[in-house]
Amino acid sequence: MKLFDSHCHLDDSTYDADLDEVLQRAADAGVAAMMIAGIDLKASQKAVVIAASRPHIFAAVGFHPHDTASADDAAMQQLCKLAGHVKAKAWGEIGLDFYRMHTPQPIQEKWLIRQIEAADEMDMPIIFHERDSDGRLLSILKTYHRHPGNGVIHCFSGTHAELMQYLEMGYRIGVTGILTLQSRGADLRELVSEIPRDRLLIETDAPYLTPAPEKNRFRRNEPAFVKSVLIKLSEVLDENPEVLAETLWSNTCVLFRISPESLS
Predict the structure, then answer these.
(1) Which fold has domain 3-263?
(2) Alpha helices of 170-260 — where are they, by DSSP H?
(3) So what's the pLDDT on residue 262?
């Protein structure tokens, strides 16, 4: 059984002291590939460096909505250069986050649109972040994304209506450890059965969003724990976990245009 953690942050400083051990635990759990999502220029550069040093790790570059205040034309030029690296397979994570408003809405929207345009120009899939944007991300995607469906809605936590619109536009849906949490994951468990199997991805968002049962023992999430997301998803969908794992593996490789043979 091969698993692909489609979204993690191994560039985070919490892994600096034990990255090799983290990767070994991932391998032991059957995690055969990982995508590191960038949140700003520095993180994106580090993600590419890590990905370049290991065949089963890939990188995405971009400015997270919280970090768009640090974006400028020079940084965008550097991101575009990074995006041309052989191990850079996506642009992200980018989007809108109106929950804490670390960056004002106009700045978030300006750099979201600029990044969508850059990704479209390079024909790259996009990893989207959305929280409490009240349909604004959908509106921007409908207006500016020239390749609708060429991307994934990371850590989906929206409404049924929003889910249906993302699916109608062709996007994949990323499911995190929230699915495993008794109270917080209740709505998501109700919705996942409506996602076509070929649109599903699993992810950790490590070091954040540690799933159950690991949440009871570890504060820091890591790619190995994506197996718990798979197991819970297979329970909710009443599917064989090994069969579901094959589907999810294929979905992720197709989205990020990664040859499965290169990971064997």
Answers:
(1) TIM Barrel (3.20.20)
(2) 186-191, 226-237, 241-256
(3) 85
